[in-house]
């Protein structure tokens, strides 16, 4: 790095000058998709960890669930290493996830809040742990969990270093504790930023067209996913739900459970979503145990992912609007049938599910995001309609498909 002269702005681009220079305790960035927030954060950490004056600094990267780190932050940091030409210095490994500077011994550690003991018991080998990046901070629904996490950074630092926590997230819900804590009051130790795709000079025309179409067809989503504003949530479809950790043995011993596995197809703009749940019809309980939620999956990759998760032999109900995909999955050995759709099927399914208590395992972060944003639609005058929004509905649809055969009397149609 000492032999290379470059302008960091050539690598990062515009819109993040304050972010790059701030040394206060918290950098909090809510932003739209394609706003560069994650890539800029990854570049900042690799560039600054590589500086001589910060050679005693180490970084902890956190998400709510450990399994989501490899395809998000770990990949972004590897991209940043390559972009800055430091592949011979920073060496990644996957078991466990870790990136090490082989010249200084500095490390980038990766942890999930689903294993709190591993988060709070990190001991660095060289230097000190002074920086933390919490990606998709919106997934952390408990402010107490956040406080416990950041308390792990207490202690003195060598001269020249500073403690800092960076939070990046999409601002889906204005009622989230992040808004009140970091955006509703002024604190000199907090940099609270809102960014969006308009500051991303590297977007191509096809990306920009997606946002322009969203602006026209779905203004509500554009306000959040396009401009980075807080999502206004009013009139939730499902209100009788809670987030609670549980084991299968615990609920199987207590309730008469049957499985309900559903699959909603997506690809480029929408994720393919699998709902893994269990239902006790007599006691009116639905347990959300696991999920798959990813864009760009071929049908073969959907099957491979579900197989790796341990569900290749289970019976799924999929979106019948995709008969070709269902047939292809059957060819791979998956036990899947199409859901039966008919008039008023969505509302009938919703009404049945509304009579249940829904218990969601904390690792199902995408299910939690969807159910806390899945609302009744409104007309142009703001009057509520008797249909849900066409958004935050991939796992919501997959849940209806998966529970189809249990709905009372089995007389309603999709």
Model description:
- The model has no long low-confidence stretch (mean pLDDT 92).
- Helix 8 crosses helix 9 (219-226).
- With 414 residues, this protein is an alpha/beta fold.
- The protein contains 15 helices and 17 strands.
- It starts with 8 loop residues before the first helix and ends in a 12-residue tail after the last helix.
- It is 31% helix and 24% strand.
- The chain has 2 domains: 9-215, P-loop containing nucleotide triphosphate hydrolases (Rossmann fold, 3-Layer(aba) Sandwich), CATH 3.40.50.300; 241-410, 2-Layer Sandwich (Nucleotidyltransferase, domain 5).
- The chain has helices spanning 9-12, 17-21, 37-49, 70-83, 116-120, 143-150, 177-183, 205-217, 219-226, 248-254, 299-308, 323-331, 345-354, 365-371, 394-402; strands spanning 26-31, 57-63, 90-94, 97-101, 107-112, 128-135, 164-169, 190-195, 241-243, 258-264, 272-280, 285-294, 315-318, 335-338, 357-360, 376-378, 384-388.
Secondary structure: elements and pairs:
Layout: H1 9-12, H2 17-21, E1 26-31, H3 37-49, E2 57-63, H4 70-83, E3 90-94, E4 97-101, E5 107-112, H5 116-120, E6 128-135, H6 143-150, E7 164-169, H7 177-183, E8 190-195, H8 205-217, H9 219-226, E9 241-243, H10 248-254, E10 258-264, E11 272-280, E12 285-294, H11 299-308, E13 315-318, H12 323-331, E14 335-338, H13 345-354, E15 357-360, H14 365-371, E16 376-378, E17 384-388, H15 394-402
Parallel strand pairs: 1-7, 1-8, 2-5, 2-6, 6-7, 9-15, 10-13, 12-15, 13-14
Antiparallel strand pairs: 3-4, 4-5, 10-11, 11-12, 16-17
Helix pairs in contact: 3-4, 8-9
């Amino acid at each position: 790095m000492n032999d290379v002269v470059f302008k960091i702005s050539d690598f990062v681009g515009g819109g993040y000058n304050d972010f790059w220079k701030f040394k206060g305790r918290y950098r909090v960035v809510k932003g739209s998709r394609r706003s560069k927030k994650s890539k800029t954060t990854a570049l900042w950490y690799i560039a600054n960890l590589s500086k001589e004056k910060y050679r005693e600094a180490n970084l902890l990267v956190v998400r709510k669930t450990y399994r989501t780190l490899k395809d998000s932050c770990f990949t972004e940091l590897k991209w940043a290493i390559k972009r800055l030409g430091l592949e011979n210095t920073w060496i990644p490994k996957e078991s466990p996830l870790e990136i090490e500077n082989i010249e200084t011994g500095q490390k980038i550690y990766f942890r999930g809040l689903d294993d709190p003991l591993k988060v709070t018991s990190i001991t660095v080998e060289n230097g000190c742990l002074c920086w933390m990046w919490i990606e998709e901070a919106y997934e952390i629904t408990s402010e107490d969990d956040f406080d416990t996490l950041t308390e792990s950074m207490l202690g003195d630092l060598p001269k020249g270093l500073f403690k800092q926590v960076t939070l990046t997230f999409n601002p889906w819900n204005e009622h989230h504790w992040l808004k009140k804590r970091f955006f509703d009051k002024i604190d000199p130790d907090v940099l609270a930023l809102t960014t969006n795709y308009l500051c991303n000079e590297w977007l191509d025309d096809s990306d920009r067209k997606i946002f322009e179409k969203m602006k026209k067809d779905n203004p509500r989503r554009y306000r959040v996913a396009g401009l980075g504003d807080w999502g206004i949530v009013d009139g939730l479809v499902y209100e009788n739900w809670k987030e609670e950790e549980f084991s299968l043995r615990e609920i199987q011993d207590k309730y008469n459970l049957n499985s309900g596995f559903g699959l909603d197809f997506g690809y480029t703009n929408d994720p393919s979503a699998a709902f893994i749940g269990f239902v006790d019809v007599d006691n009116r309980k639905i347990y959300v145990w696991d999920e798959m939620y990813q864009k760009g999956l071929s049908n073969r990759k959907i099957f491979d992912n579900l197989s790796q998760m341990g569900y290749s032999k289970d019976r799924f109900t999929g979106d019948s609007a995709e008969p070709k995909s269902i047939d292809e999955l059957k060819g791979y050995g998956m036990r899947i049938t199409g859901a039966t759709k008919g008039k008023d099927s969505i509302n009938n399914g919703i009404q049945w599910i509304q009579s249940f208590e829904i218990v969601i395992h904390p690792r199902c972060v995408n299910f939690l995001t969807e159910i806390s944003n899945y609302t009744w639609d409104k007309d142009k005058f703001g009057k509520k309609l008797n249909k849900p929004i066409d958004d935050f509905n991939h796992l919501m649809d997959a849940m209806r498909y998966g529970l189809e055969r249990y709905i009372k009397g089995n007389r309603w149609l999709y």
